[in-house]
Design goal:
The protein has 246 residues and is an alpha/beta fold. The chain has 8 helices and 10 strands.
Length: 246
């Protein structure tokens, strides 16, 4: 969280960054509203429950899954502020889930910070948990290349630093304290991961573009323009919309 906040404050317009994120959440909501029934939602890696209130009014039930115990406790506090009957939080990993009737899964800024093999395992698990034609919404860091890129993010003298590394260096740094390994996903990688687990990419949307303007920013207009012009190399993050298909 500290590293993310430092990135936003040092490399981007904070107002734009927040509005760009909110615009993507609205896109997810519009997709959810297209589902004929009132859907059940799984928030995978829900953290402190920041998205509970965002989706609360558009689903019949929310399950938040969070492996970190302190974040789980914070998410429980968030549930009490909203509706403890409609939301439940589980402290654990995906293999502890038994439900197979989720119409919507949210994976928000999780995939870029977990080991490579875990992304495939996660999608494989979800193949059995997501209903037919169900959605998985993945927000993650983006690579405009035909292959993934890997970085190590860390603090040095209280300043934010990024270092490009190889795939092997990325893999080997997960046990090292003070370093945040980060994977930037290419479309090709996500397409292969989705297909191998029984999903298709129905849509994608790039956001959090490289922009330093201090003036008033209309993130929705700006992001739509950048996507239309396919200026993908300037995007930090991406929303992938996956759909379960036999």
């Amino acid at each position: 969280d500290v590293l993310t906040n430092l990135y936003i404050t040092t490399k981007s317009n904070e107002k734009y960054w927040e509005e760009s994120e909110n615009n993507v959440l609205k896109k997810i909501i519009e997709k959810i509203k297209e589902i004929e029934k009132s859907p059940r939602l799984l928030d995978l890696g829900c953290g402190q429950g920041r998205l509970f209130n965002v989706f609360y009014n558009y689903v019949s039930h929310i399950t938040g899954l969070e492996p970190d115990y302190s974040r789980y406790l914070d998410a429980e506090k968030e549930v009490k502020k909203i509706d403890s009957k409609k939301i439940d939080v589980i402290n654990g990993y995906i293999d502890c889930l038994k439900d197979n009737s989720y119409d919507v899964v949210i994976i928000s800024h999780i995939f870029q910070h977990i080991p490579i093999e875990e992304t495939k395992k996660t999608l494989d698990y979800l193949q059995d948990m997501v209903t037919e034609d169900g959605y998985i919404f993945i927000t993650t860091t983006f690579s405009d290349m035909s292959k993934d890129r890997y970085k190590l993010v860390y603090l040095k003298d209280d300043k934010y630093f990024e270092e490009n590394v190889t795939e092997n260096e990325f893999i080997n740094k997960f046990t090292e304290e003070g370093i945040l390994p980060t994977r930037e996903f290419s479309y090709k990688t996500m397409e292969i991961l989705a297909k191998n687990s029984g999903f298709v990419i129905e849509d994608m949307f790039l956001y959090h573009f490289n922009m330093q303007s201090d003036g008033e920013v209309l993130a929705k207009v700006y992001d739509e323009k950048m996507n239309k012009e396919k200026k993908y190399q300037e995007a930090k993050d991406v929303l992938y919309v996956l759909r379960k298909k036999n």
